[in-house]
């Protein structure tokens, strides 16, 4: 690569301060986020997202020169729930992009939190920054392998030794104090949260040589709890949010989510688009065929979300965008369009929910939904007629052959997707029960004679 070519690119991917700046001012550069959810199977859905970004030269004025035309930097593309990424792909405006390792993402998130604390005159020591890095980078993989257990058992398993009851009690007390501060700022709590219970990361602190004794661990956790208490007391002025609010809200959210940060080459003087796709789990209820997906609708100046059904034999029966605790409809989410197989919502107002739950129910197309129920009703009426007339010869009972063959053909019809088969579960069950009732009744009438 020539010197002239090198001088036109600003190498900022390793500059953690740039990432902290981008995380702290998302609405300055995130113009529009467009997300598409495609329900294409019974167990998962495809999610595609494009982020439209404004020119970055003004925002990065302290880090680029007039000769720089592009920059290689690490962008926080989207907030993501913790867990493995499935079928993940990401592309930057000038080609491929690559994800930062999770420990590096956690470090940059911790530095962002450190900048927020410093804005209130609280400079964080390196041990506290290391603790924050470990907390926001905590994945909880250990729980998926070993299942739930008490804090004492968890620490003994993680440290390979027992801990005194007084020490564990003190760490639990610190967790209780942190929980009082952070839990009200969480829209949904699931399973565990390292920010609320920092004792969960103690085995990692020992493994990384951040602490060398239980006494050092207790001192570090106490410093962390004191930091949260200090920031909690920085009350908002005239109901306006403060850096302390941003710190506590971000830390509480990092217990469940993380910033997806990817490095890529971007132009400095032109708007550009970053695209990524992934697959998420989809849990459809057994017979009601209801499900939900959470989406973010306030991480850009405007957000557009669409939900589509890929199988042409399946339709959207009901849809609503609810706030995350499901207590009411989402604020600021407008629904401009809906048909049988797609729905779209748009959010752009300053006062809107940060994250919403898309609740929906699925059903077969009406003409496909009616046939199994009509067949089940016909078989049921035929069974009742047989029980009323009580024929007992094979010739008389042969009348069931036609309806039974029809029912069997409907049951054996192969759906093109697992989604269609799953949505037909209730109607198929009803038809199967009606057919079974007919066959058992016919056999009984014949054998009874």
What do these coordinates show?
The protein is an alpha+beta fold and 449 residues long. Among the domains are: 283-364; 366-448, no CATH class. It is built from 15 helices and 15 strands. It has an eight-stranded mixed β-sheet with strand order 6-5-9-3-2-11-14-13, with no helix packed on it. A hairpin with a 3-residue loop joins strand 13 (334-338) and strand 14. Helix 4 (126-136) crosses helix 9 (214-232) and helix 11 (366-389) packs parallel to helix 15. It is elongated and about 95 Å long. Mean pLDDT is 87; it is low at 1-5. The chain crosses the membrane at residues 370-387, 393-413, 425-447. Keywords: Membrane, Transmembrane, Transmembrane helix.
Give me the secondary-structure topology.
Blueprint: H1 3-7, E1 9-11, H2 16-24, E2 30-39, E3 44-53, E4 70-81, E5 86-92, E6 95-96, E7 98-99, H3 102-118, H4 126-136, H5 141-146, H6 151-159, H7 165-182, H8 202-207, H9 214-232, H10 243-253, E8 257-267, E9 272-281, E10 290-296, E11 302-309, E12 314-323, E13 334-338, E14 342-347, E15 355-364, H11 366-389, H12 394-397, H13 401-412, H14 418-423, H15 425-448
Parallel strand pairs: 1-4, 2-11
Antiparallel strand pairs: 2-3, 3-9, 4-8, 5-6, 5-9, 7-8, 10-15, 11-14, 12-15, 13-14
Helix pairs in contact: 2-3, 3-4, 4-9, 7-9, 11-13, 11-15, 13-15
Number of helices: 15
Please report which band the strand proportion falls in: under 5%, 5-15%, 15-25%, 25-35%, 35-45% or over 45%.
Answer: 25-35%
Q: Helicity, in percent?
A: 40-55%
Biggest sheet architecture: 8 strands, mixed
């Amino acid at each position: 690569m020539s010197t002239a070519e090198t001088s036109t690119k600003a190498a900022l991917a390793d500059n953690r301060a740039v990432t902290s700046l981008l995380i702290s001012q998302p609405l300055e550069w995130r113009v529009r986020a467009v997300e598409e959810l495609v329900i294409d199977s019974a167990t998962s859905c495809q999610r595609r997202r494009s982020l439209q970004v404004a020119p970055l030269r003004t925002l990065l004025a302290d880090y680029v020169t007039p000769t720089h035309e592009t920059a290689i930097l690490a962008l926080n593309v989207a907030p993501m729930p913790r867990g493995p990424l499935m079928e993940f792909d990401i592309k930057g405006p000038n080609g491929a992009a690559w994800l930062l390792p999770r420990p590096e993402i956690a470090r940059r998130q911790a530095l962002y939190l450190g900048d927020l604390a410093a804005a209130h005159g609280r400079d964080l020591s390196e041990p506290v920054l290391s603790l924050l890095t470990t907390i926001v980078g905590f994945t909880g993989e250990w729980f998926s392998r070993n299942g739930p257990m008490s804090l004492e058992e968890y620490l003994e398993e993680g440290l390979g030794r027992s801990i005194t009851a007084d020490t564990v009690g003190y760490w639990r007390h610190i967790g209780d104090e942190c929980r009082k501060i952070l839990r009200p700022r969480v829209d949904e709590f699931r399973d565990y949260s390292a920010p609320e219970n920092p004792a969960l990361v103690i085995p990692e602190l020992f493994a990384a040589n951040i602490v060398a004794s239980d006494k050092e661990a207790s001192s570090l956790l106490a410093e962390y709890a004191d930091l949260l208490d200090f920031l909690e007391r920085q009350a908002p002025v005239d109901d306006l949010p403060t850096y302390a609010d941003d710190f506590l809200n971000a830390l509480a959210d990092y217990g469940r989510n993380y910033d997806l940060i990817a490095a890529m080459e971007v132009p400095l003087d032109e708007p550009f688009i970053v695209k990524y796709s992934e697959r998420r789990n989809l849990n459809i209820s057994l017979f009601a065929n209801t499900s939900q997906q959470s989406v973010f609708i306030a991480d850009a100046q405007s957000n557009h979300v669409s939900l589509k059904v890929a199988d042409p034999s399946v339709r959207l029966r009901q849809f609503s965008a609810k706030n995350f605790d499901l207590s009411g409809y989402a604020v600021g989410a407008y629904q401009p369009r809906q048909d049988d197989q797609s729905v779209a919502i748009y959010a752009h107002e300053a006062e809107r929910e940060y994250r919403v739950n898309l609740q929906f129910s699925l059903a077969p197309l009406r003409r496909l939904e009616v046939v199994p129920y009509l067949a089940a009703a016909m078989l049921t009426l035929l069974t009742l007629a047989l029980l009323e007339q009580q024929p007992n010869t094979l010739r008389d009972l042969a009348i069931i052959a036609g309806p039974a063959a029809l029912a069997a053909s409907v049951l054996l019809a192969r759906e093109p997707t697992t989604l269609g088969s799953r949505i037909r579960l209730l109607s198929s069950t009803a038809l199967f029960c009606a057919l079974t009732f007919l066959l058992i009744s016919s056999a009984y009438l014949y054998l009874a004679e």
